[in-house]
Amino acid sequence: MKLNRSCFANRKAFEDISVKLPCFDWEKMVQATEKAPRWIHFGAGNIFRGFIAELQQQLLEKGLEESGIIAADTFDFDIIDKIYRPYDNMTMMVRLKPDGTMEREVIASVAKGVKADVGNEQDFAYLVKAFTNPSLQMVSFTITEKGYALADFRGELFPVVKKDMEKGPQKAVHAMSVVTALLLQRFLAGGFPLALVSMDNCSHNGEKLKAGVAAIAKAWEKAGFAPEEFISWLEDESKVSFPWTMIDKITPRPAAVVQQALEEDGLEDMAPVVTSKNTYIAPFVNAEVPQYLVVEDCFPAGRPALEKAGVYMTDRDTVNRTERMKVTTCLNPLHTALAVYGCLLGYNSIAAEMKDKELKALVERIGYTEGLPVVTDPGILSPRDFIKEVIEYRLPNPFIPDTPQRIATDTSQKISIRFGETIKAYLEDDKLEAEHLTAIPLAIAGWLRYLLGVDDKGQPMEISSDPMLLELKEQLKDIKFGEALSDRTALDGVLSNPVIFGTDLVKAGLSTKITEMLSRMLTGPGAVRHTLQGYLQAFD
Known about the structure:
The protein is globular, with a radius of gyration of 25 Å. The longest helix is centred in the middle third of the chain and has 19 residues, at 205-223. α8 (205-223) packs antiparallel against α9 (228-235), α11 (316-330) crosses α15 and α18 packs across α22. The protein starts with 10 loop residues before the first helix and ends with a helix. It is built from 23 helices and 15 strands. It has 540 residues and is α/β, with parallel strands linked by helices.
């Protein structure tokens, strides 16, 4: 059996191996999309295939939509050649449950996969045709936060962006340049309204998308590649909107156990591929069951009935509060604490860590005890219920192959939001004392201990990539494994940095506690475990 259009003629065979096939008319959907496209998506990876495309499939199945999605990729064109076209743009969706069972469904809501490459005459002409069609309502994105960035951390434009600005729309390469070139075509064709919807997992994502497009457009207007009216069109929210969103679903890399199960049931060509851009991707997507998408309801050209597929359609403030709830309290801080301690204690699985008494107690205290008193309540989701689902259902799922080593990447860029916001909230509340925090300081001390590159057994440990790693290692160079800290101000230079921690932890009254915690973790093999036990047992 193959994953392509032939599956519809082989329905019983798929049903016999518990694979759900869509019931809508696939050929009719493809034709409707060709004639009157309504939705284009940039970023053809797993979060799109395993979540966003499934939303449109629900609407197709309910008869609420006739057309599908056009999937475009601006970065890794091999994905289109190797994962989309050979499978008629279909995906085998595998939902992994904590009890070990799998739900399998063919997602067939993508009508076409294309390369968003101005150098590919055929594919780019197809995108221009779709962008200039008045029927188009929305363009969504999952290109990662880096996909919107035009400059490095010094504020200097990337060479590719400078070249795009100088050469104009016909030579666009960067994702923001390609999208802006297509928007210019839509403007010139009649200025039809459109919503550009970032669905990437980053705060204020709509703002980031708008800033990227605006910067390219203004550079082109200044260089004579675009008329001044194009800028006015982009800035008119009744014509072009940039809604904010919050997305949450874990779609890890393809798991060998899933591939094996599919192949044992007779499905052919399920092996993952590694693209020329080093993307590890498969014809199937394995993911957890829980998923959340909260979208600012600002669509000047209309939109699909996304609320009928479980999407929360709301206002910008609620989107922002939901994002803040997740990132500062209910999920991301727990992930980061598990990441650094998982590496130190020799774990290779987040799920395995949740069987560890101390680590489970640590994240429970970070979430329930220290986070909830200052959590941002969005009103549409219960923060307590969200944390409960994360701790009891999502993180312990052994079939979500996520690793602490992956999550520990770029931690210096995450600490200020994931822990700093809660600390600041304590400092601003007259009824709360930041000095009483314990689990969050333990997480910060654990990260500093992790940066030494020595695990709890005293063995060398690889540190995940981080843009501040060299600078941090220099600041911590006098701290040695096996040597307790005699100077309780030894970390003040690091801990007083508000860029890293979101606030000055010395002034917050937490530096002494964090320094003491780190000092205990340095005394020798097993010291990290003993330190966790010592602090957490006090709350039993």
